[in-house]
# Entry
Amino acid sequence: MKSGSGSILVIDDDPALRQVLQEVLESAGFEVQTAADGESGLLLAKESSFDLVLTDLSLPGVGGMEILQFLVKHHPECPCIIITGFGTIKSSVDAMRSGAYDYLTKPVNPTELLVVVERALDHRRLKWENLQLKKQLQRRYGFANILGKSEAIQQVFEIIEKVADTDSTILIQGESGTGKELIARALHYNSSRREGPLIPVNCGAIPGELLESELFGHERGAFTHAVRTRIGRFELATGGTIFLDEIAEMSPNLQVKILRVLQDYSFERIGGVKTIRVNIRVIAATNKDLESLVHQGLFREDLYYRLNVIPIKVPPLRERESDIPLLARQFLKDFCARKKTPPKQLTAAALNCLSHYSWPGNVRELENLMERLAILIEGEVVDVAELPEKFHPRPLERLPEAMDFPERGLNLAAVVRDFEKNLILKALERSRGVKSQAAQLLHLNRTTLIEKMKNQKIQYPPATGKA
Ligand SMILES: Nc1ncnc2c1ncn2[C@@H]1O[C@H](COP(=O)(O)OP(=O)(O)OP(=O)(O)O)[C@@H](O)[C@H]1O
Ligand SMILES: [Mg+2]
# Structure
């Protein structure tokens, strides 16, 4: 007989059968623990983890069904095989429906027992390997076309994975070009609504009144040009997802109307009286800081809270530096293949320059640059010289030569301190106060910059002096 490996819990109140099962399984190489009733069986299942559980269905007290339900809920990876008395087909069918992997009828035939156990364990192994492979793929290639291995983007993947298959409203915030739309698509195509439509609406690109009828539709004759009834995008999205992009651009009037849709998923078409109910999932995105718009009274607070059920903040590219080489290489490879130009390699020095740039246009800017390089560069190597000027490392700026050396000499330490303070302020100004970026401009670690700011008592933005 083939020798098995794995740990098995056997729960049976019949001592003779329990012993037979234990002997057969142990002689096949399995590690076996036994329990004589449901209570102690359940306790064992709770305390340690098994590769497989074999349980009698009818046990006094805690029954086999209860043990099965516990396993399905808490250890879905552990297959459970049910042993039923002769002639109780119905209960075995019930057990299978509740998630049992298989069943055996008494009297248990040892050969059949081993076949069923091996099959269940093979199934478990396959399932586990599959899961590992999927995880590995996601780690390597990101989540549905979203590339990135940085801590910052991995955190975003984690949220996406958790919420994709729910109906919760999601608010994606991030600077322009960070991948908000890509994330919205990943959410839709990884949800159970993936067969339904994904309807995008760019709230910033459609003028106010038009946007209302785009979203809600209108009845014939609702206004002068409404010659026929029109179905709006909320209705079109039924069974799927509506992606409200650039949500901050929506007029206050429309904000109220959207709020109602988010509250009870119903509305009327413009000029209509019939209330239309829709089954939709809402994903919204913006490159504005919605919370501060709320504080400024430019965005409704109640709508903000309705949208912000699950917030996803997409970090700017400069805060995920380790993704830059990965993205650059992939984009360049893809564009060369798409444009049918010879494949090109970025040198380490070129990648280094790209990594130190601040990327105000984020991933889109990087993507565009790679497209240009794929077309314009003739050779097969892209070095620093092939990159646009702004990526080139700057020569060390020299001390202003015009500075006169004072007659009476100077206090070197104080002047150097002043000079340093000035340069730090300039860097902060250039990066609009973003410390990580200012640190990059100064070729410093962020923590070193913060340390220096503390020592020099530098505040940014500078205090105005008002109370
Ligand atoms: N992590 C990523 N991996 C691969 N491609 C990405 C990634 N992030 C963004 N992109 C690509 O960058 C481009 C910009 O992304 P997207 O349109 O999703 O940004 P956005 O945040 O919606 O920008 P905007 O605010 O300007 O609308 C797209 O071509 C997208 O495919
Ligand atoms: Mg977008």
